[in-house]
Amino acid sequence: MRLFQRFEVWVLLLVGGIVIWWSFQSNTTPVEDGPVAGMNADSPLQLRRCTLERDFGNARLDLEVRYKNTSPRPLSMQPPDVRLINAAGKDVPPFILPVERPASVEAQTTSDIRLRFWLEKADLTGPLTLDIRGQKLEVKNHTPFDLEKLENAKPKLWTKSAWTQ
Question: Is the pLDDT of residue 107 over 90?
Answer without folding.
Answer: yes
